[in-house]
Amino acid sequence: xxxxxxxxxxxxxxxxxxxxxxxxxxxxxxxxxxxxxxxxxxxxxxxxxxxxxxxxxxxxxxxxxxxxxxxxxxxxxxxxxxxxxxxxxxxxxxxxxxxxxxxxxxxxxxxxxxxxxxxxxxxxxxxxxxxxxxxxxxxxxxxxxxxxxxxxxxxxxxxxxxxxxxxxxxxxxxxxxxxxxxxxxxxxxxxxxxxxxxxxxxxxxxxxxxxxxxxxxxxxxxxxxxxxxxxxxxxxxxxxxxxxxxxxxxxxxxxxxxxxxxxxxxxx
Length: 268
Fold this sequence. Notes:
CATH topology: Alpha-D-Glucose-1,6-Bisphosphate, Chain A, domain 4
GO cellular component, one term: cytoplasm
CATH architecture: 2-Layer Sandwich
Protein name: Cytoplasmic phosphatidylinositol transfer protein 1
Strand content: 25-35%
Domain Phosphatidylinositol transfer protein N-terminal: 1-243
Keywords: Lipid transport, Lipid-binding, Transport
Radius of gyration: 19 Å
Oligomer: single chain
Number of strands: 8
GO molecular function: phosphatidylinositol binding; phosphatidylinositol transfer activity
Order of helices and strands: EHEEHEEEEEHHH
């Protein structure tokens, strides 16, 4: 099992990020949905109260991504391929799990906690002492870490973006010493116990997770003028609308793909 703890600082408060995160995930999921790829929301409801963390929100999603996998994985994956995401949001603490029925030995768990600091808590996710040596800590800088060029947009670059509403930005060297500042601590555990592929797959998934975290958190800040001032009801309503749009987009594309494959099979 490969374990990494990502620490992503944001020029926000934890209370602000509660809204920004929900807005970002909903909009990002819709934007990433195309031609059979994307996020399909299966459930989004209140979950049973946790004795430690209180009331929370449960979500279950199908992440369709077959055409975005590297060729060496596509070679043994079915054409219609998705990963199941289950999440329990007890903000400011969340649990997220990823599984795939086609690859039962693949399991990803992400524990997240949000704190109003610059990533200075050494073990806020309470990793057992005997496991700390297995954890690699990786600070993700939303302003200066290199983003995959295919996702780059100047208007979403924190080095250039300035919020009209809050006056925050652009982010310059040393920005993490300014206030407000909060940190998203994410303990990501990836397990793929298949001889000959374990290291390669676990490394690949951790790189993908880091790329998604970098892009998503850059967008959450760059979109601040759209979500700042929303109430939790406002953002939940927005989330619901975008989920319906994303589901329709993914399912329509999947049905068209299946129809085309059936047509091609008849021709062959």
